Amino acid sequence: MIENKKYKDSFNYAYIDEFTKKEIRRKTLKAVCIPGYQVPYSSPEMPISRGWGTGGLHLTLSLVGPNDVLKVIDQGSDASVNACNLRLFVQEMAKCALTFNTGEATIIQSRHRVPEEIMTEKQILVLQVPQPEPLRGVERHEAKTRMMHAEADYAKIWVTLYEAYVRSGALRSGAGHPIMVNGRYVATPSPIPSWDVPNLSMARCLYLFGAGREKRIHCIPPFTRVEPLEFEDIRFKVEEFVDIKCSASGEDKAFMDQIYDDDFNKSWVINDSNFLDKVRQGPRPPQKLFTNPE
Amino acid sequence: MGYVAVKGGQDAIANANKLVDYFRWKGRTKPIEVDQARTQMRLAVDRAMGEGSLYAPEHAALALLQVEGDSFEAAFHLRAYRATLERRYFSEILNTREMLVHRRISSTFRDIPGGQILGPTRDYSFRLLSPALLEASLGSIEKFISDLKDEIDPSKLHQMTTYKKVIDIFLKEGLMSSQASPDEDRRVFDVTKEAIKFPVPRSAALQMLARAETGALMCMAYSTMRGFGNSHGTVGELRVGDVPVRVVDKRGRLRCVGKIKVSEAEMVGGGGGRRGTGNAAGPKYSIGYGLCFGQNETKAICMGMVESALRSPNPDNPANNQEFVLYHTEVIESYGFTNHLKLPHYVTFQAGLEGGRRITRMNEEKSKQVPVSAGGGEASND
Predict the structure, then answer these.
(1) Min CA distance, A101 vs chain B (Å)?
(2) Which ipTM value was assigned to this complex?
(3) Who's near B167: CB < 8 A, 6+ residues apart?
């Protein structure tokens, strides 16, 4: 008969067994050594669904210790159900401290957003990545995309950007603008909005990207050059929130969410929930802003 | 305000869990016992063990009960549990020639050494709903079993035996070679410990297929037969039964650690004589191999067909494409990712929306700057 305790207390510290954790840490170190390169790793099954942040969880669980302070955000919000769920799971398994405060956290796991507040060398941002391969849109076969990266053959993605410009008049619209990391590997910043992309370059913190389902880890180490792919004359641009102010704080320099009330009246609110709280209470936390080229 | 802006995602999760329990119990029926599920939902348990990649009937039964019978979730629970267990041993290669056979059939020959054994199968029963099951009771079960025993004449029970394999005929006749082709990648890979890289060795493909979702594998196998492939594998042999599992202990002794029930399919494909095999050798056949936990014949057969298809790559057919088949039949990954669409995506959506608006703005500004097109109307957008 099944022993009941098997389900209750016998999980290893931070869930994953030590051998696998060691493997994930080694692969992470490799990713740190080769910025932007996608390192394959074992990616064990987690008790949450694939595509819901398993890659991020692997990284977080392999890094976390009892003295860590963890923050989990989903689409900029600490209150999002999936963020709550992941946060509770890690706390249960690793007995670490939790916070909503961006400045206080030692590890921040995030989906689709880099916090507005500037992160420091004491912090690691773990991003959950659905598709780690920036070339997947132009080449569906993994064997070929690995070859293309090895040869730095990025012609196809440049052509795609050019075609997007010819068709629409802009390089690309939407989240996940491809980036060149340390002048060598084209990588995906995970689908963060363009607004967040400039924050990846020459940052003080470590950025780790975990794609659980695709079993890949990539990394942007501190003080690494990250350039969004752009042409000399047609430049990368971040989202412009023209004539828009946050309805909760009156501020305008942040990534905004568009919200609707019951009568479909549209208003805007700062997306990053902790940043919004700090802006309202003051003082405004340090933030790096990017100005669109004319 | 939607489901994210609300503070209290935590409460929402707790309430959702409560509601799941409510919907399970609101009918106020007697709880199903794990043993009942394990024995009376035998095939669901077998399927969950296969897709969950963990041979543990009791755990699988618990998983099925816990998730109200959802096969994806049951497999998922088993996989998540399995990820917490250390791999202490690697078993020796299973020898299915040692199988205590419950059922074995071959469709390549009328008579096979040892005979065809239909065994427990629903293949030839009418799929009619059976109200008789509603009358079943512990008493009727006892009666059924004792009646069945009475039917058996112990003197006619021949000795427990194992069976030779149908492929032995092919080997003996020289229709098949026991040698792997020289270009075959024979590395032994562990897909649970390493990310696969393409092209994957056959061992990795077989492991992934054995863990794949039954329905997805069936879709692939079916496609090879009806328009997106040119194979119609024949069942060389399909057997279901118990096989001993052995490991080598620390002192180097071979130890039997128990028996597992497996379904094994050896699908015969090829034939017709291949170029380069030499005309004197006659037609050469090959085996598409399928093996999975429990009794899941559909999966074993489909796995055999797909395995065979994967060894003749062809970009025109999904089933002949390793990356297509192995990535997309993986149950936990496909289930998780298709369901992640339920997560909020408002940031990425907003980024796209804003990008679209910017393009509209730019176009408007452009049309303001050039009020009348100077050289005829051909520049206007349609």
Answers:
(1) 15
(2) 0.77
(3) B176, B236, B237, B266, B287
